[in-house]
Amino acid sequence: MALGSKILLVAGLLTLVACPAEAQTAAPSGAMLGAACVLCHGPDSAGAGAVPGLKGHNKDYLVVMMKAFRSGERPATVMGRVAKGFSDAEIDAVSAYYAGLK
Amino acid sequence: MTAIHTTISRRRFVRLAGAAGALGAVGMMGCAAQGQAPRGRVVVIGGGFGGATAAKYVKKADPAIDVTLVEQNPKFTTCPYSNLVLGGLRKMEDITFGYGALADKHGVRVVHDAAVSVDPAQRTVRLRGGQTLNYDKLIMSPGIDIRWNALAGYDEAASQVMPHAWRAGEQTVLLRRQLESMPDGGLVIMVAPANPFRCPPGPYERSCMIGHYLKTNKPRSKLLILDAKDQISKQGLFTDAWAKVYPNIVEWVPLSKDGKVTKVDVREMTVETEFGKRHRGNVVNVIPPQKAGAIADAAGVADQTGWCPVDPMTMESKLQKNIHVIGDASNAAPMPKSGFAANSQAKVVATAVVDMMNGRTPGAPAWLNTCYSHVAPNYGISVVNVYRATPQAFVEVQGSGGVSPVQAPPAMRVQEALFADAWYESITADMFG
Q: Cβ contacts (< 8 Å) between B365 and chain A: which residues?
């Protein structure tokens, strides 16, 4: 692949990732972004059945997982489709929120 | 004398102690504000996916707010998973919940009565029992009402013969009983409505669950879906499931193939389509046209579409100040009318209302929707959507969400069925736990 098309590809990916942030006027808080997670990840985000818990995990781990789901690097059943709706800043905020829950 | 006196005293003491206990529960809200009057009053109308969640989360975010939930039924039967009751995979008691924890654990005052009118100027809600409630903020989550007679011949009496089962409860039991008493070789007809309506994938999950019941119990029987649409939710997935899992059992007739039903006749047990074709069924399930729950009309928050326009940032009605509308009754398109979306909206509205009552500007909202459908035992599929807001509109995040792949290994279908169960367990605990 020529360098030019590589740059175009990277630029294209960046545009795609930037879109979520453009759709809103201000940034939702980590708590707001994470409010719906408990609907599958269990009461208090402690896990439910086949779905793992979220609270108290290392923040960097949550960030890496969300980004791997978003890129498809980590195959997913549902989370890939969820993660594609989150910008880098949003992934950071929601990960910090769940890492902070005891 | 002494003995009698002691007895009386003890009785009085017990009675007084009970009254003190009851006062204590009410007084707790005052305690949080250190003996002062509560921060303000929030009334929530409707104890379903939107309302029960909103009441709990307002109280969680600010215990000093006095929260009253108005819900006419003592128990709530969820529409999600009611299709599994029809399929024989769940019992009614598995999908029925009480309001005990909301009252006892979270300090929500639960009033089992019906709201009959709202005065937006006086900020009052009148209940059928005669009581009047004052509010600073009103959150309405009344769900849907049926547009009786919008489909010719389909009135409330007709729904006792041709159940809609689109509000779970007695209607679900009635439809299940009709399926059970139908002879093998019979025809089940489902009438599916045009958009918008509660739970876009619901009719088609139901078709699979009825299909499952027929396949396992009455294999010579058939289900005919007569649809007023050409495009349906999770279309590729349901079409695939009908062909592979329920061949010769489920048949879907879309709008363009004369699927739109314009008239029903409960005495003849027939339905008639746009171009005059009549079908006679042993069991007829009519999912009729819908609108926001009647109280939305009475409060002046519904527009000519029958649904309630809202400000995306706070879910506040565009027609009445200090009234917020969430759940199926609101028009939050492109967000679907789903239990998940209603719960997600409830958290946005709870945060906004608490911020406003504390003199803060509400933060930016965010919503998520994940709708699972059960196609067969150990066979689940889903659709995911992620939403943000601009001041003017609800916006689906570009490139996000989507449906399960049509080509997927069986392990993924099993996993989605398990995830669906985890979702149901989690969301009902979030509402009622």
A: 28, 32
Report the alpha-carbon distance of residue B93 to residue A52 in Å, rounded. 27
Q: Which chain A residue has its CA at the smallest distance from B61's CA?
A: A31
Residues 6+ apart with CB under 8 A from B12: none
Q: Which residue of A has its CA nearest to B408?
A: A77
Distance from CA of A80 to the nearest CA of B (A): 8
Residues B67 and B121 in one domain: yes
Q: Is B142 exposed, middle or buried (0-12, 13-18, 19+ CB in 10 A)?
A: buried
B380: tokens are 């689940």
Whether A39 sits inside 8 A of B400 (CB atoms) is: no
What is the C-alpha to C-alpha distance for residues B209 and B286, in angstroms, rounded to an integer? 16
Residue span of the structural domain in which A50 resides = 3-100
Inter-chain touch A35–B401, beta carbons under 8 Å: no
Measured distance CA(B304)–CA(B55) in Å, rounded: 28
ipTM confidence score: 0.87
For residues B338 and B330, the answer to whether their CB atoms sit within 8 Å is no
| CATH number reported for the structural domain that contains residue A86 in this entry | 1.10.760.10
> Average pLDDT for residues B316-339, to the nearest whole number?
98
Question: What is the number of structural domains in chain A?
Answer: 1
Q: Over the stretch B342-367, which tens digit does the pLDDT of each residue have?
A: 999 999 999 999 999 999 999 999 99
Q: Which residue of B has its CA nearest to A30?
A: B366
Domain-ending residue, one of B323, B346, B363: B363
Model confidence over B150-163: pLDDT tens digits? 999 999 999 999 99
Q: Is residue B14 part of a domain?
A: no
Look at chain B and report how many structural domains it folds into. 2
Gap from B343 CA to chain A (nearest CA, Å): 8
Dig out the tokens for B411 from the structure: 């392990």
Asked if B259 and B302 sit in the same domain, the reply is no
For residue A11, name the pLDDT band (cuts at 50, 70, 90): very low
Taking residue B74's Cβ as centre, other Cβ atoms within 10 Å add up to 10
B93 φ, ψ to 5°?
Answer: -65, -25
Tokens encoding B162? 């041709």
Give residue B112's domain range: 21-145+291-363
Nearest to B371 by CA among A81, A97, A23: A81
Q: Give the residue numbers in A contacting B (CB under 8 Å), as ranges.
A: 16, 19-20, 23-29, 32-33, 35-43, 48-51, 77-78, 81-82, 84-86, 90
Look at strands B124-127 and B132-134 and give their pairing: antiparallel
Contact B363 A38 (CB under 8 A): no
